[in-house]
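EI: anyone free to look at a 131-residue chain?
SC: sure, send it
EI:
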Amino acid sequence: MIRNIVFAAGILAVAAGSALAQSSTVNGAAGGAVTGAIVGGPVGAAVGGVVGAVAGTAIDPPPQKVVTYVREAPAPAQKVVVKEKVVVGEALPSTVVVTPIPESPTYAYAYVNEQRVIVEPSTRKVIQVVN
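SC: here you go
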């Protein structure tokens, strides 16, 4: 029993540290913790908090000014086509040129498979496909 409490406390500490990163993470962690507590008690709350924190950061949409910038940016003269499907949450191949957004350095964009996509520059992960 004590072992479970220590484990749960460790998980909660990790969840709390993750939750401080972004406001949506806090919402995700809180929602996950509540759901986990209902299903699995204290240990379920800890695990649910971690899962909720991860899910909360994955769905954070970029600010409207970033979307507008990407929507209005001129399409490059050279078209980039890749075999892989462009999927939110997945990284773009290293062959795709990613262009930083000047006013928002935490975002970049690319034009691939005739789609404009907003990505996280450090991981190249697709955050949003802009229509």
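EI: The chain has two domains: 2-58, 64-130.
SC: 👍
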